[in-house]
Each structure stands twice: as structure tokens, then as C-alpha cells.
């Protein structure tokens, strides 16, 4: 196939390009040229999707994959240029489209987010960051894509993507921290569930779907069994040959000490305490239904392989700034307080 990838040089995009080349497809990348030195064997079109898209005019591709559409005006602008010059469009959306993650087994027909029209206008004008209304904007992007390519869009509502080059640092934080060893504080129960998907597995499935032009909306995360946080961390421990010792602190203690879920403690959303502005805990956060995608052929690499890939990448990382995770000093202080609490309760 002739494949156009909008993006393609950062994280998921790298995996998509690698998979396309492995399958023998002809790839064109359209992006701002930040990492234009990678994939020298493919065609690079340098441009900004918010600016001039003329390089895409009068070109035909079988498949277009959009990895970085954050607002509907971006989809509309791309559609005005591409139109029927593409047969099939894949849009990387997010499970953040849902109104909340309160119930278990949220499926693709669950309630979606919305946003005021004045805020949408502000996003288009650039006075509000699209990340402020990330989920609601993804909803509008899906609708915009369907408007231009009805019945020819694969909407991928992705969960936590993991693998090398993961700039979110959510799984990398845990891999690196476990590799360092020692006592590690972890919020919540060892049996709390977690969902994530290897970008290589997602890329493989994307092209399998594209080759048969299968459209529709799919939740895409994993794995296809109940993965606990304890299993995830013990796998990190085995892969990194670490002496780590996990200290499981109850959620109330962690929250009382002003530790932020998801950012300071990645892959943790409280199961028993409500988030700000919510009446109920988001207990369904890591219980998103993926039955539809699995029925459509989504499959998963062994967890050990994914952790190994992230660990090898971690060893070679040049940047030291972390976008997620608690500092070692703050963690040590928290551990000290936790053990003092435990000691006083047992004495």
C-alpha cells in the first residue's frame, strides 16, 4: 500500500513506520521535520498541519494515518486537501473521549465528553491549549473525520501506550525506579488492575485493519487478561534483575501527603477516592472493554518483551528530565512517614 503518516517520528509514529516498512509498504511522512534524520529510506514532506498543506495536494495514498490530530479544524483542513485522494483514514484517538471512567468495562457506546463552543473557538485561535480539553477535542475530531470519510475511518481510542521513546515517562518511571532497587513506595493494592498496550502491537493491528479496510471505532488497550500492578512491577524486577522491595501504601495515606495520582505516581488513579469534581471514584480506569478490538484481531506481546524494550531504551537515554514520577527525596520522606505510621499502629 501507499501510506501517508501525519507525524511519524516521535513515539507511536516510529512504530507505525517500522511496521509499514516491515510489511513492504511505501511510506510518506508529513511533519515539521523535527526528527527528519530518521527513516532516510522514506519520503519526507516537511510542513505544519496548522499551516501550508500544499505538499499533500494532488497526491494519492491508499491509507492515511493521523497520529497527531488534536482539534477538529486540523482534521477539516487535512480533509480539504486529501479528500478522496485517500481510500481509508486511521485516526489515533483516546479513551479520554469518555465522560468519565467510573463504571467497569466501558465500551465504545459509553457517554462522551463535550465542550462549549466558545472554548472550541479559543482552541482554534490558539488562546487555549488543546490539552486543556483533550478528550472533548478528540470526540470532535472523530466526528469531523467521519463527516469527510464516512464509513472509511478507523477510530482508535487508545489507552496507555508503552514502549521505547515513551515521552510520557509513565511506564519508564516504574522500569527505571525498579531497576534502581531498594524500597519503593507504591499506592493502592497489589491487586489493582492496570491496562497498557505496546506500540508495536498497536502498529501491527493498525496495518492488519488497513489491509482489509476495516473501519469503525475501537477501544485499544491491553492486555487481554487482568494485569495487576504487582505483576507489572514484579516483571520489571525480573527483567532488570533488581533487588527492589515494594511497599504498598494505602490510597488515603498517599493522597493525604499530597502525592498527585498519574503524574507523581504514574499508572495510578485512586480506586476508592473521588477525583476533584467527581462524586464517585474512577474505578473503571483500568477496566476498559477491549472485546471489540480483540474480536477484530488485536493481539499482545508478552509483558516481559515490552518491559525489556523499555529497559534497553532507558539505558541509552540522554535526557535526564522526567515528565512523570516522584522525586527520590520525596519518596524517601514518604517511606519514612509510612513506616512511622505502621510502627505506631502496631505498638
Give the topology:
Elements: E1 2-6, H1 12-22, E2 26-31, E3 43-46, E4 61-66, H2 72-82, E5 86-94, H3 117-125, H4 134-148, E6 153-158, E7 161-162, H5 170-180, E8 183-187, E9 197-198, H6 199-211, E10 216-220, H7 229-240, E11 245-249, H8 251-256, H9 291-295, H10 303-316, H11 328-346
Parallel strand pairs: 1-2, 1-4, 2-3, 4-5, 5-6, 6-10, 7-9, 8-11
Helix pairs in contact: 1-6, 2-4, 5-7, 5-10, 7-10
What does it look like?
The chain is of the alpha/beta class and 347 residues long. The protein contains eleven helices and eleven strands. The strands form three sheets. The protein has a seven-stranded parallel beta sheet with strand order 3-2-1-4-5-6-10, sandwiched between helices. Strands 7-9 form a two-stranded parallel sheet. Helix 1 packs across helix 6, helix 5 (170-180) crosses helix 7 (229-240) and helix 5 packs across helix 10. The chain is globular, with a radius of gyration of 21 Å. The N and C termini lie far apart (69 Å). The model has no long low-confidence stretch (mean pLDDT 96).
The whole-angstrom Rg is 21 Å
Report helical residue fraction: 25-40%
- Point out poorly predicted stretches: none
Shape: globular
Number of discrete helical segments = 11
- Element pattern in H and E: EHEEEHEHHEEHEEHEHEHHHH
**What is the overall pLDDT average?**
96
For the secondary structure, the number of strands is 11
Strand order across the largest sheet: 3-2-1-4-5-6-10
Strand content: 15-25%
Largest sheet: 7 strands, parallel
First-to-last CA distance: 69 Å
Structural class: alpha/beta
